Amino acid sequence: MTSRSLPLLCRSRTSAAVTRPSVSTSASCSARFAFRLPIQQYCCGPQYRIALSSATSSFSTLTKGPRRYTSTTRSVESEKATSVGDKARSLTPREQIYNVPNILTASRLISAPFVGYLVLHEQHKWALALFAYAGITDLVDGWIARKYKLQTVVGSVIDPMADKFLMTILTVTLSLNGLLPVSLATLILGRDVSLAVAALYWRYASLPAPKTFKRYWDFSLPSAEVHPTTMSKYNTFLQLLLIGATLAYPVITADNHHLGIMHDIGLEKLDLAQFMTYFQILVAGTTAWSGLSYAFLKDAVKILGKDEQLKMKQGRRGRAIIGVTFGSVVVAAAYLALTKDLPKKKEKGTIA
User: Fold this and answer.
1) Of the candidates 210, 235, 213, 204, which has an alpha carbon nearest to the alpha carbon of residue 303?
2) Transmembrane segments in this chain: where (predicted)?
3) Which of 16, 119, 226, 285 could pair with 59 in a Cys bridge, judged by C-beta atoms 3.0 to 4.6 Å apart?
4) For residue 275, how many C-alpha atoms fall within 13 Å in the half-sphere facing its CB?
């Protein structure tokens, strides 16, 4: 050990066991920095490493190794950060999504493809039973969630999703089975597609920068609010009634007992068919009106932001998208009604 390193070790009250070769001057100077941390490992030279501990006042060994510096203090700090992160995650509030309302809604969502399968295979009684189940659970799950305060974000998403999924499947399958006019099915589905395209535009246009794919689908970043019009609410109710009546129509007309009851109250099968035709015309009118109302009413969509001129510009563009797309759907539905559906109705005698 050199004479310059002895005073440093004496002042630090540290005894050292050193093996040859001796510690150089650069190593003793480096030891002054090493004593400042609880446990340090510091490179002293090209081939030697020194380990010092101020807590135990010990000088471990001089060993050969590469030039490097490592500290257990950093690893302790990283462990503390990890434990703090774990505690923070454990304190993050989580919703209890496994409750009765969400289970009922999920069952309604799962039952939709089975209803469509039964309709295509003309199992109308079972299809009507499943549709009745879907309607009852739609009322019950909302009542339970409100009464017992079981509302969740998941429930607010999958509930309207289940309703729209069921309506779409039934509209397509009933049209394929000949129970629903093609023109009316085109109008119902075209309205939903038109509103979806406009909603995608409004979301992108009103999303604050940066406009990334992740932020686009992050609905915790609100950008626009859609308020259903009054006619849209009435139209949804009438569509549900029409779908239910269309499912019940073959069940009633295929059973002689039901036909006998109708005859007793003064109704015939032709009268019921005419009623369904007029009901379909009514729903076609409300569907067209409700879809076009989003193209003309400025209050239907509220875009969030501070730039009023930009908000007005985005609103006009979105309404123009609905006007063009849904206007084309209305024209196509009218063409199908005049060329396909109306001749069939006249052949059956449901329309004079």
Assistant:
1) 204
2) 165-189, 234-252, 272-297, 318-338
3) 16
4) 10
Per-residue pLDDT tens for 207-225? 878 888 888 877 666 667 7
Cα gap 303→1, rounded to integer Å = 78
The SS3 assignment for 332 reads helix
Nearest-CA neighbor of 133 among 157, 161, 158, 104? Answer: 104
In the numeric block, which tokens belong to residue 173? 């399958």
User: pLDDT value at position 21?
Assistant: 47
Domain extents in the chain: 5-73, 97-177, 180-352
Rounded distance, CA 329 to CA 318, Å?
17
Which tokens belong to 307?
């730039």
For residue 242, give the amino acid letter.
L
Global pTM?
0.66
Question: Tell me: the pLDDT tens digits for 93-144?
Answer: 556 778 888 899 999 999 999 999 999 999 999 999 999 999 899 889 889 9
pLDDT at residue 289 is higher than 50 = yes
Residue 298 CB partners (closer than 8 Å, separation 6+): 315, 319
For 46-103, the pLDDT digits (tens) are 444 444 444 444 444 444 444 444 444 455 555 555 554 554 444 445 567 788 888 9
If you write DSSP's letter for every residue of 65-103 in order, what string do you get?
--S--EEHHHHHHHHHHHHHHHHHHHHS------SHHHH
Q: Give per-residue burial for 75-103: e unless 16+ CB within 10 Å, then b.
A: eeeeeeeeeeeeeeeeeeeeeeeebebbe
Distance (Å, rounded) from C-alpha 331 to C-alpha 219?
34
Q: What are phi and psi of 141, to 5 degrees?
A: -65, -35
Q: Token pair 């304190």 is at which residue?
A: 91
CA 180, 281, 199, 308: dihedral to nearest 10 degrees?
Answer: 180
